[in-house]
Amino acid sequence: MVCFFSSVIAYLAMPQAFLFDSYSQLCKAGTLDPRKVNGKILVCLRGDNARVDKGRQAALAGAVGMVLANNEISGNEILADPHVLPASHINYTDGVAAFSYIRSARSPMAYITSPTTQLGAKPAPFMAAFSSKGPNTVTPEILKPDITAPGVSVIAAYTEAQGPTNEDFDKRRVLFNSISGTSMSCPHVSGVVGLLKTLHPTWSPAAIRSAIMTTARTRDNVIEPMTNASHFKATPFSYGAGHVQPNRAMDPGLVYDLSINEYLNFLCSLGYNQSKIALFSEGPYTCPKHIILTDFNYPSITVPKLDGSISVIRTVKNVGSPGTYRARIIKPTAISVAIEPDSLKFRKIGEEKTFKLTLNVTKASAAMDYVFGHLIWSDGKHFVRSPIVVKTV
Ligand SMILES: *[C@@H]1O[C@H](CO)[C@@H](O)[C@H](O)[C@H]1NC(C)=O
Ligand SMILES: *[C@@H]1O[C@H](CO)[C@@H](O)[C@H](O)[C@H]1NC(C)=O
Ligand SMILES: *[C@@H]1O[C@H](CO)[C@@H](O)[C@H](O)[C@H]1NC(C)=O
Ligand SMILES: *[C@@H]1O[C@H](CO)[C@@H](O)[C@H](O)[C@H]1NC(C)=O
């Protein structure tokens, strides 16, 4: 259904007035001329000011609609925002086409139809451009992020204490809102944690995290490696262990568990002194002399400064049926990976087995950027997957 049909304009950055025009193209406050904008659909470029602010500036200047066009960095990421005027959000390639149409047509026209729900979008999921990325700058031996979950245009109950755009100008009040952000992604995982804790009350937080991470998927719904918002292959620095799969997390087979003392040792490695550690421990705790962070029993394996060769140790605990797990490794580029033992036999629940992963630089060349691989332990039924992340010195 066509809502309305109107001429469409955009401010196009001209070399002679570049700054002003490029601010106008972003539809920033104080840059739009109502004489040009009034009654038109305005095309605004994403970036700098808030997306909903662009719509507000367009509306204040008298625009009847807005087309929000992605800049290159936001690629294909399209968000459902609570705009204050009829608006449509288009991806970068469509945006380039729209700007070129406006530039070339004598009297460019546009219309905006009422929204419809589209199911089965492909590829999905892909990483949002705004999602925070690794490496972990504080503790590079521990991969961050751990996991990814839905966080784009998530509809949920909303407070009436503020308007849906969370901007002062917005006097609207809604019971439900569509929001994007890590703040929407995190509660999905928190919910999964709650469900897992109900199902497995004795599991530690580390065991629950391990179950969520090792069962995550790294492929999308076209069975290709998950991509970023510009359709390039994403890495564990974007998605950690992958996209959460709650049902798989119920039955991970094995978990990488951690005790309280291992967490305290981690704090020791960050330089926490006795009095600070006492805030976390039940009694006095003495830090060990030597802590090897690459051996922290995490469900991912990260070696940020591989110089020749390193062995990392991990321990897995059986939380499933008895069985024999075999290792399968996808090696990072130019790194050899050996595992010892490469088969683990579990007879009962709670049984633990330790293995050693040896990483060697095979190509003695200049320091490489981060490279990625993974380790999977499988008994044929469970697939316990850990990312391997390596940077050579
Ligand atoms: C941009 O969106 C259009 C749909 O409007 C789609 O056909 C096209 O594939 C998208 N561009 C890219 C590069 O994915
Ligand atoms: C996607 O990855 C490519 C290659 O690493 C990078 O150049 C591009 O900026 C990334 N796009 C987004 C939206 O993160
Ligand atoms: C630990 O560090 C804090 C400051 O960060 C200091 O106030 C405290 O005295 C220190 N405790 C010990 C036991 O060194
Ligand atoms: C890795 O290097 C170590 C020490 O240099 C060596 O003993 C081991 O055989 C190497 N392993 C592989 C898989 O290349």
Please give a structural write-up.
This is Subtilisin-like protease. Belongs to the peptidase S8 family. Helices cover 22% and strands 25% of the residues. By secondary structure, the chain is an alpha/beta fold. Bound molecules: 2-acetamido-2-deoxy-beta-D-glucopyranose (4 copies). One 2-acetamido-2-deoxy-beta-D-glucopyranose (NAG) binds next to helix 10.
List the helices and strands and how they pair.
Elements: E1 2-10, H1 18-25, H2 34-37, E2 41-45, H3 51-60, E3 65-69, E4 87-90, H4 92-104, E5 109-113, E6 154-157, E7 176-179, H5 182-199, H6 205-214, H7 236-239, H8 246-249, E8 254-255, H9 260-269, H10 274-278, E9 301-306, E10 309-318, E11 323-330, E12 335-340, E13 343-346, E14 352-361, E15 371-378, E16 383-392
Parallel strand pairs: 1-2, 2-3, 3-4, 9-16
Antiparallel strand pairs: 1-5, 6-7, 8-10, 10-14, 11-13, 11-15, 12-14, 15-16
Helix pairs in contact: 5-6
The structure holds 2-acetamido-2-deoxy-beta-D-glucopyranose (4 copies).
One 2-acetamido-2-deoxy-beta-D-glucopyranose is lined by residues 76, 91, 93-94, 231.
Biggest sheet, spatial arrangement of strands: 4-3-2-1-5
- How much of the polypeptide forms β-strand, as a percent range? 25-35%
Question: Which CATH class of the domain at 251-392 applies here?
Answer: Mainly Beta
CATH architecture of the domain at 251-392: Sandwich
Quaternary structure classification = single chain
Topology order in helix (H) and strand (E) letters: EHHEHEEHEEEHHHHEHHEEEEEEEE
What is the 3D shape?
Answer: elongated
Distance between the termini: 59 Å
The helix content is 10-25%
Mean of residue pLDDT values:
92
CATH fold call of the domain at 251-392: Immunoglobulin-like
Total of DSSP H or I helical runs spanning 4+ residues: 10
Low-confidence blocks of residues? 14-20
Radius of gyration: 26 Å
Query: How would you classify the helix and strand content by structural class?
Result: alpha/beta
Number of strands: 16
Main beta sheet: strand number and arrangement?
Answer: 5 strands, mixed
Distinct small molecules: 2-acetamido-2-deoxy-beta-D-glucopyranose
Domain Subtilisin-like protease fibronectin type-III: 295-390
Protein name: Subtilisin-like protease
Pfam families: fn3_6 (PF17766), PA (PF02225), Peptidase_S8 (PF00082)
Domain PA: 25-96
